[in-house]
């Protein structure tokens, strides 16, 4: 029987690997994502000259996995490592055995890995499980083994003895790679597939068409790549152009077949995205007759949402799209085709006679239902070709195609609505999964972005608490999205990693086992693997052990240990830290105010982003005498668009007035301002007694609080609602107060709280505030 050898062999190896608890390793190996079950043993297995990779499986793919494993090991050891089918009675001591059994009830990605001093045994229900065990074996070796020429052959590698039983939590564990905004070369796409597979991710969502470029060769419509694959300009001027000065590129159908086959060998399914009915200006530049206006058009050179979309009232539009999709289906054997369906302006449809005729003829209520008609019609065509449609959560609007899968990106409300209605869902909300968002507060990023750090990405749970348990089966999994408006090919690694490792664990490991502290421990080793793999990841920022912002006599500053192989370079005078700046080695004593700037510089010489931290020595601020005081603060309201607080003295106010408290000024501004706005509130704050006061500022886009023109709290350019605190030493009486704020759109928040002598923490009240008439 097929089962007889693997089961017996694994039981023998397990007996060898399991030792008394006193001999177990102190900590689990640093595997990412974390396995479901891991039982450390004692001793090690060494691969030697007589070792082989033995296969016992009815699946031809099992031998392919064995060949990949052996080839990987040969380049690192120089050992011969032959691959052959295991004879029934063959002695497997000293070898690696891969075994499967068809018809086994376990999931296709499940594997059992046992390492004893006699050898390695891997059992899986399907070759996919063998492949994932191979990735785990790689991570059980020193990180430097990931370098192709890491060792001088011949060399004998060795693994720790242990037992692992592992499988995924979700079926869909993916990443979107946007090649529409910036073309990525073929070898880079294949490298991306390797990195996905290494982290046990199994879907590459390949975004191939956009307003800024059409990247897939379609034989029937050659102008899609002759015209639509190129644009005359790009914001990233350093990117290479072709001989004609154009920017762009495309994949031939042979390129795509090669990439699809490469992905298949690594158990990664490629899901192509062909955008419709919007995000299609590159196609309209090639075939303007498919638009509502007839053009002419150019491939878009700016980011943002484009007004021109496919004409939903023109039959030629559907003939075109069905012909395009027919060629796409021939190239991509997976069951899913993504059609986008997001951000579709309706202005052209509103004024298009053909679209209005379609609305009337089909008995539709409005343009929203016209979009639903468009999606349902495409879904019907795909179903006729045995394919399933995926779209962004906008396809819920106006009625959803019956068999469509929804990718929820605008939060998780779309996921709950779709799953509750019986539709499958891919969870990739902007709050946790958008890898184009900064990994730290970044004033240069658009105001609506905010930031997603590693811990935030790791905290995501694709199963919404609001979803009934009976409907949770419709949540297929999680996907991280790297949109590339601001990430040409050289920038992708920096945006994606290490957050993709966090999302890989979200998709693979049981929710009950996820722990960020333990993940951080394992990432210390995993960063070394990423270094060896040549991944240009986001360098971890220096982190202070405490959030001290002020002191009275003296204080000490300490940094937490870095999770990577590098050093913290810092300055205290506000100058930029470089490799020539002092290296942090011990706690820093401060006797006066300082502006600390610090950054991580890796052993490789790579330089991380810098952090800034202002520490103020508190000196008593004397109160001022006010002849006449009226309640509230005087405010000035300004219209405009900013990423950082503006220079108010250079602006002309739209309106002036008096507000009892800052929140009242914000409410007034929101009622009259059009778009972005800024506020400056000025007056005085009453301190009831001498002492240290804590000022807490809650804001979204940017704000700061000043007393006596000295900045106490700064929340400028953070673009996310959060609290910032500062301390100030005040004498009893009135103190000149300024509050500055700007709103870049979206959520608005402005609140100031105070705590100090005779005052419990509380919002500023009208009785505390005054201004000169």
Summarize the structure.
Helix content is 25%, strand content 27%.
Supply the key terms.
about 25% helix; globular; about 775 residues; alpha/beta; 8-stranded antiparallel beta sheet; 8-stranded parallel β-barrel; 37 strands; single chain; disordered N terminus
Give the mean pLDDT.
Answer: 92
Distance between the termini: 96 Å
Physical arrangement of strands within the biggest beta sheet: 8-9-14-15-16-17-18-19
The rough form would be described as globular
- What percent of residues are in strands? 25-35%
Radius of gyration: 30 Å
Helix content: 10-25%
Briefly note the structural class of the backbone: alpha/beta
Number of strands: 37
Number of contiguous helices: 18
Main sheet record:
8 strands, parallel, barrel
Contiguous runs where pLDDT drops below 50 for at least 5 residues? 1-26
